[in-house]
Amino acid sequence: QVQLVESGGALVQPGGSLRLSCAASGVTFSRCAMNWYRQAPGKERELVAGVTSTGRSTKYADSVKDRFTISRDNAKNMLYLQMNSLKPEDTAVYYCNAVLLGVFSINYDYWGQGTQVTVSS
User: Fold this and answer.
1) pLDDT at 102
2) In angstroms, rounded to a whole number, what is the distance separating the alpha carbons of residues 1 and 68?
3) Phi, psi of 62 (to 5 degrees)
4) Are the beta carbons of 38 and 60 closer than 8 angstroms?
5) CA atoms within 13 A on the CB side of 60
């Protein structure tokens, strides 16, 4: 069974920082591209950041560029999202997503249960 468990969400004031973590198990972590998504109440789930299986390349939503940093530690099966200069619009449930890279363009998606981030004064 593949499990992705997020942690690190909290209530933080605007301008503050948080570091989210995602612990993966039951899958070959080094074969997975990893992503962070978020979803606010009444809004669609959106991609926040992604990182390739090796950690060599990253991508970010325009709304979080220069503020968030995605990283991974393949030796520990861990994914991270460092969030700085947080804004109220960053408030959402943040989800860890793993994409297992298979052969012949066949991939498999897995999701965590999410962790709540609330940015408010």
Assistant:
1) 81
2) 30
3) -55, -35
4) no
5) 13
Percent of the chain with pLDDT over 90: 93
Query: What is the per-residue pLDDT across 58-108, written as a single tens digit (0 to 9) for each?
Result: 999 999 999 999 999 999 999 999 999 999 999 999 999 999 988 788 889
| Structure tokens given for 97 | 């997503």
- Tokens coding 52: 């390739």
**Tokens found for residue 120:** 């408010």
Alpha carbon 39 to chain centroid, angstroms: 12
The kind and range of the H/E element at 37 are strand 32-39
Residue 44 CB neighbours (<10 A): 6
- The SS3 assignment for 21 reads strand
